[in-house]
Amino acid sequence: MNENLPKNAFKGDAVEFLQVVYRSPDFDFETRMEAAEKAAPYERAKKTETTIDDRRHYVAEMPAMPKDLDEWKREYMQPGPKDPTADAVKAIAEQAKKEKDLH
């Protein structure tokens, strides 16, 4: 397609061509303004295109407010799974106490 173009044909794309026209003092003011007007949408994004909020939003349901501290403790301070090391430490402490009582 480009092989039929003359050697001195413009090598850039349409926007580059319009930029050459509106920047060149060789063209009259009206022609330069028309080229600038046609190139402008392709040189800078429109305001609506740059202000799209693509951050993700999440909704979380908050738990009901407890009536008092005791209700909060009942709801949130329940014992977790039993730690086997706690039993081992307790057994060692009991054994040490027995040995101390024997002496």
Calculate the mean pLDDT score and round it. 80
Roughly how many Å apart are the termini? 107 Å
Helix content: 40-55%
**Overall spatial form:** rod-shaped
- Show unreliable segments: none
Short overview:
This protein is mostly helical and 103 residues long. It has helices at residues 14-23, 29-43, 47-50, 69-76, 84-102. Helix 1 (14-23) crosses helix 2.
Structure description:
With 103 residues, the chain is mainly α. It has 2 domains: 2-48, no CATH class; 69-102. The chain has helices at 14-23, 29-43, 47-50, 69-76, 84-102. The protein has 5 helices and no strands. Helix 1 (14-23) crosses helix 2 (29-43).
Layout of secondary structure:
Elements: H1 14-23, H2 29-43, H3 47-50, H4 69-76, H5 84-102
Helix pairs in contact: 1-2
Keywords:
single chain, 103 residues, mainly alpha, 2 domains, 5 helices, rod-shaped
